[in-house]
Design a protein that fits this description.
It is a single chain. Helices cover 27% and strands 21% of the residues. By secondary structure, it is α+β, with helices and mostly antiparallel strands. The chain has 2 domains: 6-116 and 134-368, Spore Coat Polysaccharide Biosynthesis Protein SpsA, Chain A (Alpha-Beta Complex), CATH 3.90.550.10; 451-584, Trefoil (Acidic Fibroblast Growth Factor, subunit A) (Trefoil), CATH 2.80.10.50. Strands 14, 18, 19, 20, 21, 22 and 23 form a 7-stranded antiparallel β-sheet that branches. Strands 12, 13, 15, 16, 17 and 24 form a 6-stranded antiparallel β-sheet that branches. Strand 7 and strand 8 form a beta hairpin. The protein is elongated and about 95 Å long. The structure holds ligand LR7 and manganese (II) ion (MN).
Protein backbone atom coordinates (compact mmCIF):
# COMPACT_ATOMS: atom_id res chain seq x y z
CA UNK A 1 0.00 0.00 0.00
CA UNK A 2 1.26 3.45 -0.89
CA UNK A 3 1.68 6.11 1.68
CA UNK A 4 2.20 9.79 1.05
CA UNK A 5 5.49 10.10 2.94
CA UNK A 6 8.30 9.60 0.43
CA UNK A 7 10.97 9.02 3.07
CA UNK A 8 9.16 6.01 4.43
CA UNK A 9 9.11 4.01 1.23
CA UNK A 10 12.86 3.87 0.77
CA UNK A 11 14.70 1.20 2.74
CA UNK A 12 16.76 2.57 5.60
CA UNK A 13 20.37 1.83 4.73
CA UNK A 14 22.41 0.42 7.57
CA UNK A 15 19.48 -1.02 9.41
CA UNK A 16 19.20 -4.20 7.36
CA UNK A 17 22.91 -4.34 6.68
CA UNK A 18 23.86 -4.55 10.32
CA UNK A 19 26.84 -6.83 9.98
CA UNK A 20 26.65 -8.77 13.21
CA UNK A 21 23.90 -11.29 13.48
CA UNK A 22 24.51 -13.14 16.74
CA UNK A 23 21.22 -14.98 16.66
CA UNK A 24 18.08 -15.40 14.71
CA UNK A 25 16.05 -12.97 16.73
CA UNK A 26 18.51 -10.17 16.10
CA UNK A 27 18.12 -10.85 12.44
CA UNK A 28 14.39 -10.45 12.73
CA UNK A 29 14.75 -7.14 14.50
CA UNK A 30 16.87 -5.59 11.83
CA UNK A 31 14.12 -5.67 9.27
CA UNK A 32 12.38 -2.48 8.36
CA UNK A 33 8.80 -1.62 7.53
CA UNK A 34 9.14 -2.61 3.88
CA UNK A 35 9.81 -6.16 4.95
CA UNK A 36 6.73 -6.43 7.09
CA UNK A 37 4.78 -9.33 5.71
CA UNK A 38 1.25 -9.94 6.69
CA UNK A 39 -0.12 -13.38 7.30
CA UNK A 40 -2.13 -14.75 4.38
CA UNK A 41 -5.22 -15.26 6.54
CA UNK A 42 -5.40 -11.52 6.96
CA UNK A 43 -6.73 -10.98 3.48
CA UNK A 44 -8.18 -14.41 2.86
CA UNK A 45 -11.64 -14.65 1.37
CA UNK A 46 -14.08 -17.34 2.47
CA UNK A 47 -14.37 -20.20 0.02
CA UNK A 48 -17.98 -20.97 -0.74
CA UNK A 49 -18.64 -24.66 -0.91
CA UNK A 50 -20.69 -27.16 1.03
CA UNK A 51 -17.52 -28.60 2.40
CA UNK A 52 -16.73 -25.15 3.73
CA UNK A 53 -20.08 -24.90 5.55
CA UNK A 54 -19.37 -28.09 7.38
CA UNK A 55 -15.97 -26.81 8.37
CA UNK A 56 -17.50 -23.58 9.55
CA UNK A 57 -19.95 -25.47 11.68
CA UNK A 58 -17.11 -27.34 13.31
CA UNK A 59 -15.20 -24.13 13.85
CA UNK A 60 -18.24 -22.45 15.34
CA UNK A 61 -18.72 -25.27 17.83
CA UNK A 62 -15.08 -25.15 18.80
CA UNK A 63 -15.22 -21.40 19.26
CA UNK A 64 -18.31 -21.53 21.46
CA UNK A 65 -16.68 -24.16 23.65
CA UNK A 66 -13.58 -22.02 24.09
CA UNK A 67 -15.54 -18.87 24.90
CA UNK A 68 -17.72 -20.78 27.35
CA UNK A 69 -14.62 -21.59 29.40
CA UNK A 70 -13.81 -17.88 29.69
CA UNK A 71 -17.38 -16.91 30.41
CA UNK A 72 -17.68 -19.41 33.24
CA UNK A 73 -14.77 -17.69 34.99
CA UNK A 74 -16.49 -14.32 35.02
CA UNK A 75 -18.14 -13.21 38.26
CA UNK A 76 -21.07 -10.97 37.41
CA UNK A 77 -20.74 -7.42 38.74
CA UNK A 78 -17.16 -7.85 39.91
CA UNK A 79 -15.09 -4.69 39.34
CA UNK A 80 -18.08 -2.82 37.93
CA UNK A 81 -17.70 0.96 37.88
CA UNK A 82 -13.98 0.27 38.06
CA UNK A 83 -14.17 -0.78 41.70
CA UNK A 84 -11.14 -2.37 43.34
CA UNK A 85 -11.28 -6.12 43.98
CA UNK A 86 -9.24 -7.96 46.59
CA UNK A 87 -9.01 -11.70 46.09
CA UNK A 88 -8.69 -14.02 49.06
CA UNK A 89 -7.81 -17.61 49.84
CA UNK A 90 -6.09 -19.74 47.23
CA UNK A 91 -6.55 -17.06 44.57
CA UNK A 92 -4.68 -14.50 46.66
CA UNK A 93 -1.74 -16.87 46.98
CA UNK A 94 -1.72 -17.64 43.27
CA UNK A 95 -1.81 -13.93 42.41
CA UNK A 96 1.63 -13.39 43.92
CA UNK A 97 3.13 -15.86 41.45
CA UNK A 98 1.12 -14.66 38.49
CA UNK A 99 2.18 -11.05 39.10
CA UNK A 100 5.81 -12.12 38.71
CA UNK A 101 5.13 -13.45 35.23
CA UNK A 102 2.40 -11.19 33.85
CA UNK A 103 3.25 -7.97 35.73
CA UNK A 104 -0.44 -7.56 36.54
CA UNK A 105 -3.24 -9.52 38.19
CA UNK A 106 -4.35 -11.78 35.36
CA UNK A 107 -6.34 -14.03 37.68
CA UNK A 108 -8.58 -11.15 38.68
CA UNK A 109 -8.77 -9.73 35.18
CA UNK A 110 -10.14 -13.06 33.94
CA UNK A 111 -12.95 -12.85 36.51
CA UNK A 112 -14.02 -9.32 35.53
CA UNK A 113 -16.42 -8.86 32.65
CA UNK A 114 -14.82 -7.63 29.44
CA UNK A 115 -17.76 -5.20 29.31
CA UNK A 116 -17.42 -3.78 32.80
CA UNK A 117 -18.37 -0.15 33.40
CA UNK A 118 -15.93 2.56 34.49
CA UNK A 119 -16.60 5.67 36.56
CA UNK A 120 -16.95 8.87 34.56
CA UNK A 121 -13.71 10.55 35.64
CA UNK A 122 -14.14 13.75 33.68
CA UNK A 123 -14.28 17.26 35.00
CA UNK A 124 -17.92 18.35 35.41
CA UNK A 125 -17.32 21.07 32.85
CA UNK A 126 -16.87 18.43 30.15
CA UNK A 127 -20.52 17.40 30.15
CA UNK A 128 -21.39 20.92 28.99
CA UNK A 129 -19.26 20.72 25.87
CA UNK A 130 -20.85 19.69 22.60
CA UNK A 131 -19.25 18.11 19.58
CA UNK A 132 -19.89 18.46 15.88
CA UNK A 133 -22.05 15.78 14.23
CA UNK A 134 -19.66 15.64 11.27
CA UNK A 135 -16.45 14.57 12.88
CA UNK A 136 -13.60 12.89 10.97
CA UNK A 137 -13.56 9.09 11.10
CA UNK A 138 -11.09 7.21 13.26
CA UNK A 139 -9.09 4.01 13.04
CA UNK A 140 -8.17 2.78 16.50
CA UNK A 141 -4.86 0.93 16.28
CA UNK A 142 -4.15 -1.49 19.11
CA UNK A 143 -0.73 -3.13 18.95
CA UNK A 144 0.26 -6.06 21.11
CA UNK A 145 2.85 -8.70 21.67
CA UNK A 146 1.84 -11.60 23.88
CA UNK A 147 -0.75 -9.54 25.72
CA UNK A 148 -2.88 -11.53 28.16
CA UNK A 149 -6.29 -12.41 26.74
CA UNK A 150 -8.75 -10.62 29.01
CA UNK A 151 -7.12 -7.14 29.05
CA UNK A 152 -6.80 -7.21 25.27
CA UNK A 153 -10.43 -8.20 24.78
CA UNK A 154 -11.54 -5.66 27.41
CA UNK A 155 -9.64 -2.93 25.54
CA UNK A 156 -11.54 -3.79 22.35
CA UNK A 157 -14.94 -3.87 24.07
CA UNK A 158 -14.31 -0.63 25.90
CA UNK A 159 -13.68 1.06 22.55
CA UNK A 160 -16.79 -0.48 21.02
CA UNK A 161 -18.92 0.34 24.07
CA UNK A 162 -17.89 3.93 24.55
CA UNK A 163 -17.05 5.32 21.11
CA UNK A 164 -19.43 7.01 18.66
CA UNK A 165 -19.71 4.10 16.22
CA UNK A 166 -20.64 6.35 13.31
CA UNK A 167 -17.17 7.88 13.58
CA UNK A 168 -15.30 4.63 14.21
CA UNK A 169 -14.01 3.38 10.89
CA UNK A 170 -12.55 0.28 12.47
CA UNK A 171 -10.39 -1.14 15.20
CA UNK A 172 -7.16 -2.44 13.77
CA UNK A 173 -5.35 -4.96 15.93
CA UNK A 174 -1.68 -5.45 15.15
CA UNK A 175 -0.19 -8.66 16.49
CA UNK A 176 3.56 -8.22 16.83
CA UNK A 177 4.38 -11.90 16.46
CA UNK A 178 2.82 -13.24 19.65
CA UNK A 179 3.14 -16.90 20.49
CA UNK A 180 0.54 -17.26 23.24
CA UNK A 181 -1.78 -19.98 21.97
CA UNK A 182 -5.02 -18.09 22.68
CA UNK A 183 -3.89 -15.18 20.52
CA UNK A 184 -3.86 -17.45 17.48
CA UNK A 185 -6.95 -19.14 16.12
CA UNK A 186 -9.04 -18.31 19.17
CA UNK A 187 -8.57 -14.60 18.59
CA UNK A 188 -9.49 -14.96 14.91
CA UNK A 189 -12.65 -16.76 15.97
CA UNK A 190 -13.48 -14.19 18.63
CA UNK A 191 -13.37 -11.44 16.02
CA UNK A 192 -15.49 -13.50 13.66
CA UNK A 193 -18.16 -14.68 16.09
CA UNK A 194 -18.20 -12.27 18.99
CA UNK A 195 -17.52 -8.81 17.60
CA UNK A 196 -19.67 -6.67 15.31
CA UNK A 197 -18.95 -7.56 11.67
CA UNK A 198 -16.62 -5.23 9.82
CA UNK A 199 -15.54 -3.28 12.88
CA UNK A 200 -12.45 -5.17 13.99
CA UNK A 201 -9.57 -6.32 11.80
CA UNK A 202 -6.46 -8.21 12.79
CA UNK A 203 -3.08 -7.70 11.20
CA UNK A 204 -0.40 -10.23 11.98
CA UNK A 205 3.28 -9.43 11.60
CA UNK A 206 5.35 -12.38 10.47
CA UNK A 207 8.28 -11.58 12.70
CA UNK A 208 8.81 -9.58 15.86
CA UNK A 209 9.20 -5.90 15.00
CA UNK A 210 8.67 -4.05 18.25
CA UNK A 211 6.00 -1.52 19.00
CA UNK A 212 7.32 1.22 16.72
CA UNK A 213 7.21 -0.72 13.46
CA UNK A 214 4.03 -2.48 14.61
CA UNK A 215 2.36 0.94 14.82
CA UNK A 216 3.77 1.85 11.41
CA UNK A 217 2.29 -1.32 9.94
CA UNK A 218 -1.07 -0.43 11.47
CA UNK A 219 -0.92 3.13 10.17
CA UNK A 220 -0.14 1.80 6.70
CA UNK A 221 -3.33 -0.27 6.71
CA UNK A 222 -5.60 2.30 8.33
CA UNK A 223 -8.33 3.99 6.31
CA UNK A 224 -9.81 6.38 8.88
CA UNK A 225 -9.10 10.12 8.72
CA UNK A 226 -7.59 9.99 12.18
CA UNK A 227 -5.31 7.40 13.76
CA UNK A 228 -5.84 6.70 17.44
CA UNK A 229 -3.22 4.48 19.04
CA UNK A 230 -3.85 2.51 22.22
CA UNK A 231 -1.87 0.01 24.27
CA UNK A 232 -3.46 -3.43 24.56
CA UNK A 233 -4.43 -3.05 28.25
CA UNK A 234 -6.61 0.05 28.28
CA UNK A 235 -10.20 0.96 29.12
CA UNK A 236 -11.64 4.03 27.49
CA UNK A 237 -13.87 6.40 29.44
CA UNK A 238 -17.13 8.15 28.56
CA UNK A 239 -17.00 10.22 25.36
CA UNK A 240 -13.26 9.72 25.16
CA UNK A 241 -13.08 9.92 21.38
CA UNK A 242 -15.17 12.98 20.60
CA UNK A 243 -12.81 15.62 22.03
CA UNK A 244 -9.92 14.11 20.06
CA UNK A 245 -11.77 14.10 16.74
CA UNK A 246 -13.23 17.55 17.32
CA UNK A 247 -9.81 19.09 17.95
CA UNK A 248 -8.28 17.44 14.87
CA UNK A 249 -11.17 18.72 12.81
CA UNK A 250 -10.15 22.22 13.96
CA UNK A 251 -6.42 21.71 13.57
CA UNK A 252 -5.04 18.85 11.50
CA UNK A 253 -1.52 19.29 12.87
CA UNK A 254 -2.62 18.90 16.49
CA UNK A 255 -1.39 15.66 18.04
CA UNK A 256 -3.54 14.79 21.04
CA UNK A 257 -3.30 12.75 24.17
CA UNK A 258 -6.09 11.83 26.57
CA UNK A 259 -5.61 12.13 30.30
CA UNK A 260 -4.26 8.72 31.26
CA UNK A 261 -6.15 7.26 34.20
CA UNK A 262 -4.62 4.47 36.25
CA UNK A 263 -5.92 0.92 36.27
CA UNK A 264 -4.30 -0.67 39.30
CA UNK A 265 -2.12 -3.65 38.35
CA UNK A 266 -3.25 -5.61 41.42
CA UNK A 267 -6.88 -4.67 42.19
CA UNK A 268 -7.78 -3.50 38.66
CA UNK A 269 -9.36 -0.45 40.23
CA UNK A 270 -10.00 2.28 37.69
CA UNK A 271 -8.87 5.40 39.54
CA UNK A 272 -11.18 8.28 38.83
CA UNK A 273 -8.29 10.69 39.30
CA UNK A 274 -8.09 13.87 41.26
CA UNK A 275 -10.84 16.15 39.96
CA UNK A 276 -9.55 18.58 37.40
CA UNK A 277 -5.89 18.15 38.30
CA UNK A 278 -3.69 16.51 35.72
CA UNK A 279 -0.09 16.69 34.57
CA UNK A 280 1.53 16.95 31.17
CA UNK A 281 4.71 15.39 29.76
CA UNK A 282 8.33 16.37 30.35
CA UNK A 283 11.61 14.54 29.95
CA UNK A 284 14.90 13.98 31.74
CA UNK A 285 18.26 14.49 30.08
CA UNK A 286 18.86 10.78 30.50
CA UNK A 287 16.10 10.39 27.92
CA UNK A 288 13.16 9.34 30.07
CA UNK A 289 9.59 10.53 30.05
CA UNK A 290 8.37 12.32 33.19
CA UNK A 291 5.16 13.93 34.36
CA UNK A 292 5.33 17.67 35.02
CA UNK A 293 2.94 20.33 36.24
CA UNK A 294 1.07 22.51 33.76
CA UNK A 295 2.99 25.82 33.86
CA UNK A 296 1.20 28.95 35.10
CA UNK A 297 1.79 30.52 31.66
CA UNK A 298 0.05 27.61 29.95
CA UNK A 299 -2.84 27.73 32.41
CA UNK A 300 -3.35 31.32 31.40
CA UNK A 301 -2.99 30.67 27.68
CA UNK A 302 -5.46 27.77 27.50
CA UNK A 303 -8.13 29.84 29.24
CA UNK A 304 -10.15 26.94 30.71
CA UNK A 305 -9.26 23.82 32.68
CA UNK A 306 -10.92 21.72 30.00
CA UNK A 307 -9.31 23.42 27.00
CA UNK A 308 -6.51 21.77 24.99
CA UNK A 309 -3.41 21.98 27.19
CA UNK A 310 0.02 22.08 25.57
CA UNK A 311 2.38 19.35 26.60
CA UNK A 312 6.14 19.40 25.86
CA UNK A 313 6.15 15.59 25.42
CA UNK A 314 3.82 12.60 25.58
CA UNK A 315 3.95 9.22 27.29
CA UNK A 316 3.63 7.64 23.86
CA UNK A 317 1.07 4.86 23.97
CA UNK A 318 -2.25 6.66 23.75
CA UNK A 319 -2.66 9.43 21.20
CA UNK A 320 -4.62 10.68 18.22
CA UNK A 321 -3.16 12.13 15.03
CA UNK A 322 -4.55 13.06 11.63
CA UNK A 323 -3.58 10.21 9.29
CA UNK A 324 -2.15 12.41 6.56
CA UNK A 325 -0.32 14.52 9.10
CA UNK A 326 1.18 11.38 10.67
CA UNK A 327 2.93 10.56 7.40
CA UNK A 328 3.72 14.16 6.53
CA UNK A 329 5.53 14.71 9.82
CA UNK A 330 7.60 11.56 9.38
CA UNK A 331 5.62 8.60 10.79
CA UNK A 332 8.10 6.95 13.09
CA UNK A 333 11.79 6.14 12.90
CA UNK A 334 11.83 2.59 11.47
CA UNK A 335 15.28 2.05 12.92
CA UNK A 336 13.87 1.95 16.44
CA UNK A 337 13.41 -1.50 17.97
CA UNK A 338 11.07 -3.10 20.51
CA UNK A 339 10.32 -0.41 23.10
CA UNK A 340 11.24 3.10 24.17
CA UNK A 341 12.28 6.49 22.85
CA UNK A 342 9.72 6.84 20.08
CA UNK A 343 7.49 8.95 22.31
CA UNK A 344 10.09 11.66 22.91
CA UNK A 345 11.16 11.46 19.27
CA UNK A 346 7.65 12.15 18.07
CA UNK A 347 7.12 14.85 20.69
CA UNK A 348 10.24 16.82 19.73
CA UNK A 349 9.58 16.29 16.03
CA UNK A 350 5.97 17.45 16.12
CA UNK A 351 6.79 20.63 18.04
CA UNK A 352 9.95 21.42 16.09
CA UNK A 353 8.31 20.84 12.71
CA UNK A 354 5.26 23.04 13.13
CA UNK A 355 2.67 20.87 14.88
CA UNK A 356 1.33 20.97 18.43
CA UNK A 357 1.07 18.36 21.15
CA UNK A 358 -1.85 18.79 23.52
CA UNK A 359 -3.62 17.00 26.32
CA UNK A 360 -7.41 16.97 25.84
CA UNK A 361 -8.75 17.10 29.42
CA UNK A 362 -12.19 15.76 28.52
CA UNK A 363 -10.79 12.64 26.92
CA UNK A 364 -9.75 10.01 29.44
CA UNK A 365 -8.43 6.49 29.00
CA UNK A 366 -7.36 4.07 31.72
CA UNK A 367 -4.13 2.08 31.34
CA UNK A 368 -2.70 -0.79 33.39
CA UNK A 369 0.72 0.37 34.54
CA UNK A 370 2.97 -2.66 34.79
CA UNK A 371 6.21 -2.69 36.76
CA UNK A 372 8.15 -4.67 34.17
CA UNK A 373 7.81 -5.81 30.56
CA UNK A 374 6.14 -9.21 30.41
CA UNK A 375 7.68 -9.93 27.01
CA UNK A 376 11.11 -10.62 25.59
CA UNK A 377 13.65 -8.16 24.27
CA UNK A 378 15.21 -10.08 21.37
CA UNK A 379 18.99 -9.86 21.55
CA UNK A 380 18.73 -8.43 25.07
CA UNK A 381 19.52 -4.97 23.78
CA UNK A 382 18.92 -1.75 25.66
CA UNK A 383 16.44 -0.64 23.02
CA UNK A 384 15.35 2.37 25.05
CA UNK A 385 18.95 3.60 25.17
CA UNK A 386 19.70 2.91 21.50
CA UNK A 387 16.41 4.38 20.29
CA UNK A 388 16.98 7.46 22.41
CA UNK A 389 20.51 7.86 21.05
CA UNK A 390 18.98 7.86 17.57
CA UNK A 391 16.63 10.65 18.51
CA UNK A 392 19.39 12.62 20.25
CA UNK A 393 21.52 12.37 17.11
CA UNK A 394 18.70 13.63 14.90
CA UNK A 395 16.78 16.15 16.99
CA UNK A 396 18.79 17.44 19.93
CA UNK A 397 21.66 19.28 18.19
CA UNK A 398 24.33 20.29 20.66
CA UNK A 399 22.05 19.42 23.58
CA UNK A 400 22.77 15.77 22.98
CA UNK A 401 25.83 16.46 25.16
CA UNK A 402 23.49 16.39 28.15
CA UNK A 403 22.01 13.07 27.13
CA UNK A 404 25.49 11.58 26.80
CA UNK A 405 26.54 13.15 30.08
CA UNK A 406 23.90 10.97 31.74
CA UNK A 407 24.33 8.02 29.39
CA UNK A 408 28.06 8.02 28.51
CA UNK A 409 27.94 4.33 27.58
CA UNK A 410 25.78 5.23 24.58
CA UNK A 411 27.98 7.93 23.13
CA UNK A 412 29.98 5.56 20.97
CA UNK A 413 26.98 3.31 20.70
CA UNK A 414 25.66 1.50 17.70
CA UNK A 415 22.62 3.56 16.98
CA UNK A 416 22.91 2.80 13.27
CA UNK A 417 22.25 5.05 10.32
CA UNK A 418 20.13 8.13 10.99
CA UNK A 419 20.72 9.95 7.70
CA UNK A 420 17.13 9.44 6.52
CA UNK A 421 15.78 11.06 9.66
CA UNK A 422 18.19 13.96 9.38
CA UNK A 423 17.07 14.41 5.78
CA UNK A 424 13.46 14.43 6.96
CA UNK A 425 14.25 17.16 9.46
CA UNK A 426 15.86 19.21 6.73
CA UNK A 427 13.05 18.62 4.28
CA UNK A 428 10.44 19.72 6.80
CA UNK A 429 12.56 22.77 7.69
CA UNK A 430 12.13 22.18 11.37
CA UNK A 431 13.14 24.52 14.18
CA UNK A 432 16.22 23.61 16.21
CA UNK A 433 16.24 22.10 19.69
CA UNK A 434 17.12 25.42 21.28
CA UNK A 435 13.89 26.83 19.84
CA UNK A 436 12.01 23.91 21.38
CA UNK A 437 13.54 24.58 24.79
CA UNK A 438 12.96 28.34 24.64
CA UNK A 439 9.41 28.20 23.34
CA UNK A 440 7.87 24.89 24.34
CA UNK A 441 9.70 23.92 27.50
CA UNK A 442 11.23 27.09 29.03
CA UNK A 443 11.01 25.57 32.53
CA UNK A 444 13.46 22.82 31.56
CA UNK A 445 16.66 23.19 33.56
CA UNK A 446 19.85 23.08 31.49
CA UNK A 447 22.50 22.32 34.03
CA UNK A 448 25.55 23.57 32.15
CA UNK A 449 23.88 26.74 30.84
CA UNK A 450 21.89 27.93 33.80
CA UNK A 451 24.43 27.43 36.60
CA UNK A 452 27.38 29.22 38.14
CA UNK A 453 28.97 25.86 38.78
CA UNK A 454 28.17 22.21 38.08
CA UNK A 455 29.52 18.68 38.12
CA UNK A 456 30.39 16.69 41.23
CA UNK A 457 30.35 18.64 44.49
CA UNK A 458 33.52 17.61 46.30
CA UNK A 459 34.88 17.97 49.80
CA UNK A 460 38.38 16.86 50.80
CA UNK A 461 38.19 17.13 54.58
CA UNK A 462 38.59 13.38 54.65
CA UNK A 463 40.51 10.93 52.48
CA UNK A 464 39.43 9.66 50.08
CA UNK A 465 37.58 12.71 48.88
CA UNK A 466 33.80 12.62 49.35
CA UNK A 467 31.11 13.87 46.96
CA UNK A 468 27.48 14.72 47.42
CA UNK A 469 25.53 11.67 46.25
CA UNK A 470 21.88 10.63 46.07
CA UNK A 471 22.83 7.20 47.46
CA UNK A 472 20.40 5.74 44.92
CA UNK A 473 17.40 7.43 46.54
CA UNK A 474 14.11 7.47 44.68
CA UNK A 475 14.10 11.06 43.43
CA UNK A 476 10.34 11.14 43.07
CA UNK A 477 10.07 11.44 46.84
CA UNK A 478 11.83 13.80 49.22
CA UNK A 479 15.10 12.23 50.41
CA UNK A 480 18.15 13.03 52.54
CA UNK A 481 21.23 13.97 50.53
CA UNK A 482 24.23 11.75 51.20
CA UNK A 483 27.96 11.56 50.67
CA UNK A 484 29.94 8.90 48.86
CA UNK A 485 33.45 8.39 47.54
CA UNK A 486 33.76 10.58 44.45
CA UNK A 487 33.15 8.63 41.26
CA UNK A 488 35.42 9.09 38.31
CA UNK A 489 32.83 8.16 35.70
CA UNK A 490 29.14 7.29 35.32
CA UNK A 491 28.49 9.72 38.12
CA UNK A 492 24.97 10.92 37.46
CA UNK A 493 24.08 10.18 41.09
CA UNK A 494 26.65 12.87 41.96
CA UNK A 495 25.67 15.61 39.50
CA UNK A 496 24.96 18.86 41.32
CA UNK A 497 24.83 22.47 40.30
CA UNK A 498 24.43 25.92 41.75
CA UNK A 499 21.86 27.52 39.49
CA UNK A 500 21.66 31.16 38.49
CA UNK A 501 18.70 31.50 40.82
CA UNK A 502 20.71 30.19 43.78
CA UNK A 503 19.39 26.64 43.90
CA UNK A 504 21.72 23.84 44.92
CA UNK A 505 20.10 21.40 42.61
CA UNK A 506 19.96 18.36 40.43
CA UNK A 507 17.79 18.04 37.35
CA UNK A 508 14.44 18.25 39.13
CA UNK A 509 15.20 18.38 42.86
CA UNK A 510 16.68 21.12 45.05
CA UNK A 511 18.48 21.09 48.42
CA UNK A 512 16.73 22.42 51.52
CA UNK A 513 17.71 22.47 55.18
CA UNK A 514 15.55 20.79 57.78
CA UNK A 515 14.52 23.42 60.33
CA UNK A 516 15.53 22.43 63.84
CA UNK A 517 15.55 24.20 67.18
CA UNK A 518 18.42 22.30 68.70
CA UNK A 519 22.10 23.05 68.21
CA UNK A 520 22.67 19.79 66.41
CA UNK A 521 23.51 19.83 62.72
CA UNK A 522 20.43 20.05 60.52
CA UNK A 523 19.68 17.56 57.83
CA UNK A 524 19.92 18.55 54.19
CA UNK A 525 17.18 17.03 52.09
CA UNK A 526 16.20 17.14 48.43
CA UNK A 527 12.71 18.12 47.32
CA UNK A 528 11.08 19.13 44.07
CA UNK A 529 12.46 22.48 42.88
CA UNK A 530 9.85 25.17 43.36
CA UNK A 531 11.63 28.11 41.72
CA UNK A 532 10.54 30.44 44.48
CA UNK A 533 13.87 30.88 46.33
CA UNK A 534 13.01 31.06 50.06
CA UNK A 535 13.86 27.61 51.50
CA UNK A 536 15.78 26.62 48.37
CA UNK A 537 18.26 29.50 48.07
CA UNK A 538 21.99 29.05 48.60
CA UNK A 539 24.99 31.34 48.26
CA UNK A 540 28.50 30.26 47.25
CA UNK A 541 31.17 32.32 49.00
CA UNK A 542 34.71 33.07 47.79
CA UNK A 543 36.04 30.72 50.45
CA UNK A 544 34.05 27.83 49.00
CA UNK A 545 31.27 27.79 51.61
CA UNK A 546 27.73 26.98 50.57
CA UNK A 547 25.47 29.09 52.73
CA UNK A 548 21.79 28.29 53.03
CA UNK A 549 20.19 31.71 53.05
CA UNK A 550 17.07 31.34 55.17
CA UNK A 551 18.76 29.40 58.02
CA UNK A 552 22.22 31.00 57.71
CA UNK A 553 23.80 27.52 58.01
CA UNK A 554 26.63 26.08 55.91
CA UNK A 555 26.83 22.75 54.12
CA UNK A 556 29.12 20.55 56.20
CA UNK A 557 30.51 17.01 56.14
CA UNK A 558 31.59 17.13 59.76
CA UNK A 559 32.01 13.69 61.32
CA UNK A 560 30.71 12.04 58.19
CA UNK A 561 31.88 9.12 56.22
CA UNK A 562 30.89 7.69 52.91
CA UNK A 563 27.26 6.52 52.84
CA UNK A 564 26.18 9.01 55.51
CA UNK A 565 23.83 11.90 54.93
CA UNK A 566 25.14 15.44 54.70
CA UNK A 567 24.14 18.25 57.04
CA UNK A 568 24.22 22.00 57.60
CA UNK A 569 25.76 23.69 60.65
CA UNK A 570 26.92 27.08 61.84
CA UNK A 571 29.36 28.55 59.31
CA UNK A 572 33.03 28.28 60.27
CA UNK A 573 36.36 28.45 58.44
CA UNK A 574 36.87 24.69 58.47
CA UNK A 575 37.76 22.19 55.75
CA UNK A 576 34.53 20.25 56.24
CA UNK A 577 32.67 23.28 54.91
CA UNK A 578 34.84 23.85 51.86
CA UNK A 579 33.39 22.67 48.57
CA UNK A 580 34.54 22.39 44.97
CA UNK A 581 32.48 21.89 41.86
CA UNK A 582 34.07 20.27 38.82
CA UNK A 583 33.18 23.19 36.52
CA UNK A 584 32.71 26.90 37.08
CA UNK A 585 31.05 29.18 34.53
CA UNK A 586 32.12 32.30 36.44
CA UNK A 587 35.55 33.19 37.74
O1 LIG B 1 7.90 -5.49 21.01
C1 LIG B 1 6.83 -5.02 21.39
N1 LIG B 1 5.75 -5.08 20.57
C2 LIG B 1 4.52 -4.59 20.93
O2 LIG B 1 3.57 -4.67 20.15
C3 LIG B 1 6.68 -4.40 22.65
C4 LIG B 1 5.44 -3.89 23.01
N2 LIG B 1 4.38 -4.01 22.18
C5 LIG B 1 3.08 -3.48 22.57
C6 LIG B 1 2.58 -3.94 23.93
O3 LIG B 1 1.88 -5.16 23.85
C7 LIG B 1 1.72 -2.76 24.36
O4 LIG B 1 0.41 -2.85 23.84
O5 LIG B 1 3.25 -2.08 22.69
C8 LIG B 1 2.41 -1.58 23.71
C9 LIG B 1 3.25 -0.77 24.70
O6 LIG B 1 4.07 -1.61 25.46
P1 LIG B 1 4.04 -1.54 27.06
O7 LIG B 1 2.65 -1.54 27.54
O8 LIG B 1 4.96 -2.56 27.57
O9 LIG B 1 4.67 -0.10 27.26
P2 LIG B 1 4.48 0.91 28.53
O10 LIG B 1 3.05 1.15 28.76
O11 LIG B 1 5.32 0.42 29.63
O12 LIG B 1 5.23 2.21 27.94
C10 LIG B 1 4.94 3.50 27.40
O13 LIG B 1 6.12 3.89 26.68
C11 LIG B 1 6.41 3.13 25.55
C12 LIG B 1 7.69 3.68 24.99
O14 LIG B 1 8.15 2.95 23.93
C13 LIG B 1 5.28 3.13 24.56
O15 LIG B 1 5.11 4.38 23.93
C14 LIG B 1 4.00 2.71 25.27
O16 LIG B 1 2.93 2.75 24.38
C15 LIG B 1 3.79 3.63 26.43
N3 LIG B 1 2.54 3.47 27.14
C16 LIG B 1 1.80 4.57 27.47
O17 LIG B 1 2.08 5.68 27.10
C17 LIG B 1 0.63 4.35 28.39
C18 LIG B 1 0.77 5.24 29.57
C19 LIG B 1 2.04 4.94 30.30
C20 LIG B 1 2.68 6.08 30.89
C21 LIG B 1 3.28 7.01 31.41
MN1 LIG C 1 1.33 -0.11 28.39
Amino acid sequence: KNNPQPGIEAPVPGIISNNKLPNEQDQILNHNINDINLSPQFNSKPIKSEHRFEEEDQEWKKAMALFAVDERMVVQGLGDMGRAVHLSGADAVAVEEVMKVEAFNKILSDKISVNRSVPDSRDQLCTRLSYSSSLPSATVIIIFTNEAWSPLIRTIHSVLNRSPLQHLDEILLVDDYSDRVELGEKLDMYIKYRLPPGKVRLLRLKSRHGLIRARLAGANEAKGDVLIFLDSHCETNHQWMEPLLQRIKESSSAVLVPIIDVIDDKTLEYYAGNGRYFQVGGFTWSGHFTWIEVSPEEEKRRGSPVAPTRSPTMAGGLFAIDRNYFWKVGGYDQGMDVWGGENLEMSFRVWMCGGTLETMPCSRVGHIFRSFHPYTFPGNKDTHGLNTARLAEVWMDDYKRLFYMYRPELEKGEWGDVSERRALRKQLQCHDFRWYLDNIFPQKFVLDEQSYAYGRLRNNASTPELCLDTLQADEKKRYDMGMYNCHTFLASSQYMSLSHTGELRREEVCAEVQKSHSLHPSKVFMAKCRGEKEEQEWIMTKSGHLLHKSTNLCLDTVGLQSMATVSATECQPVASQQWWFDHYTIS
